[in-house]
């Protein structure tokens, strides 16, 4: 009888690689973890993920510890039910699919800050550059298009 091995990457059982067969085997995880920026302020040691509906708390913990070497203290999950949409033009009801959200509390002393993907650039343009000329032009256009305070809010096309 061949030995059976369980890995944290797949939840299925498979046979151990036997010599003599020239094929190479790569076992990739069947799941995905999507890092989500939380809408509500979270503690600095908590990270929010959107995960597959079939993943359990133990699968999430093993996934992060084995693949990414992240120390995990606790995992909390909840299922977010998708809202039902109104009927469409063919009188069919539609529904947004459900998904699972995982809140991962990191190990002691670990903190997480969401990465700033689009950092703000310095907004001061160099004098004489194209950005500076564009900014001056836009300011003069805004000044030119301001309504005349003497007309009392009546538009120009009214002809007063």
TrEMBL record:
- Ribonucleoprotein listed as a keyword: yes
Against SUPFAM superfamilies, the record matches this protein to:
Ribosomal proteins S24e, L23 and L15e
Q: Which residue intervals make up region (Disordered)?
A: 138-160
Task: Enumerate the UniProt keywords alphabetically.
Answer: Mitochondrion, Ribonucleoprotein, Ribosomal protein
- Locate the compositionally biased regions of type Basic and acidic residues: 138-153
Q: Which GO terms describe its molecular function?
A: structural constituent of ribosome
Q: Which domain of life is it from?
A: Eukaryota
A GO CC term? mitochondrial large ribosomal subunit
Q: Where in the cell is it found?
A: Mitochondrion
Does the keyword Ribonucleoprotein feature in the UniProt annotation? yes
The name under which this protein is listed is Large ribosomal subunit protein uL23m
Instruction: Look up and give the organism this protein is from.
Output: Austrofundulus limnaeus (Annual killifish)
């Amino acid at each position: 009888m061949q030995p059976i091995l369980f890995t944290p990457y797949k939840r299925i059982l498979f046979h151990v690689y036997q010599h003599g067969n020239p094929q190479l085997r790569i076992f990739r995880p069947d799941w995905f973890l999507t890092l989500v920026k939380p809408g509500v302020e979270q503690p600095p040691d908590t990270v929010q993920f959107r995960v597959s509906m079939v993943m359990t708390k133990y699968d999430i913990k093993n996934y992060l510890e084995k693949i990414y070497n992240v120390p995990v203290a606790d995992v909390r999950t909840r299922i977010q039910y998708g809202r039902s949409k109104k009927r469409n033009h063919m009188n069919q009801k539609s529904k947004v699919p459900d998904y699972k959200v995982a809140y991962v509390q990191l190990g002691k002393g670990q903190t997480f800050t969401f990465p700033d993907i689009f950092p703000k650039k310095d907004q001061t343009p160099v004098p004489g550059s194209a950005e500076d000329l564009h900014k001056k032009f836009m300011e003069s256009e805004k000044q030119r298009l301001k309504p005349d305070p003497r007309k009392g809010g009546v538009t120009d096309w009214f002809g007063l």
